[in-house]
């Protein structure tokens, strides 16, 4: 009686090939996910009305930055998909650190529009803030 021996080499090769295929599928999907990440920076112009100086401020989305007496946080930003009239919008929160009144947490909390800052104006006695870029 003859006993047949099975070779396990083809099974190992198939397993390794399948594992590599799954790895490349996951890797390529994560790269496409990185490409679809929404915009992660905004750029603001800040005018000091007292000194008439303008400063540019670049913020990461979700980051809080202190500028003079203001604490500015950007939460979202979006560029419009239309090429005819591009619109840049961002959701920002601005807190005045000199104001110790607990009833008013933010001096500004909302969406701002680059082409029409008067729609939802930032009203502060010393500073004007307007959105310039979202990338």
Structural overview:
- The protein has 135 residues and is an alpha+beta fold.
- The chain has two domains: 8-37; 41-134, no CATH class.
- Helices cover 20% and strands 39% of the residues.
- The chain has one helix spanning 9-35; strands at residues 41-48, 53-60, 64-67, 70-79, 88-96, 108-113, 127-134.
- Strands 3-4-5-6 form a four-stranded antiparallel β-sheet, with no helix packed on it. A three-stranded antiparallel β-sheet has the order 2-1-7, with no helix packed on it.
- A hairpin with an 8-residue loop joins β4 and β5 (88-96).
- The longest helix has 27 residues, at 9-35.
- Residues 30-37 have low confidence and may be disordered.
* Uncertain stretches: 30-37
**Strand coverage percent:** 35-45%
Number of domains: 2
Figure out the total of helices.
Answer: 1
DSSP summary, beta strand count: 7
Major sheet summary line: 4 strands, antiparallel
What string, H for helix and E for strand, traces the elements in order? HEEEEEEE
Helix content: 10-25%
Radius of gyration: 26 Å
Mean pLDDT score = 77
Give a quick rundown of the structure.
The protein has 135 residues and is of the alpha+beta class.
């Amino acid at each position: 009686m003859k006993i047949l021996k099975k070779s396990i080499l083809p099974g190992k090769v198939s397993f390794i090939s399948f594992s590599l295929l799954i790895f490349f599928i996951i890797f390529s999907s994560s790269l496409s996910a990185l490409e679809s990440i929404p915009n992660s920076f905004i750029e603001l112009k800040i005018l000091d009305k007292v000194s008439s100086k303008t400063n540019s401020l670049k913020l990461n989305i979700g980051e809080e930055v202190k500028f003079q007496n203001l604490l500015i946080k950007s939460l979202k930003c979006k560029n419009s998909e239309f090429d005819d009239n591009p619109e840049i919008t961002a959701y920002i929160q601005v807190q005045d650190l000199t104001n110790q009144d607990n009833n008013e947490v933010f001096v500004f909390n909302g969406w701002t529009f680059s082409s029409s800052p008067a729609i939802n104006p930032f009203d502060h006695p010393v500073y004007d803030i307007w959105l310039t870029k979202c990338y």
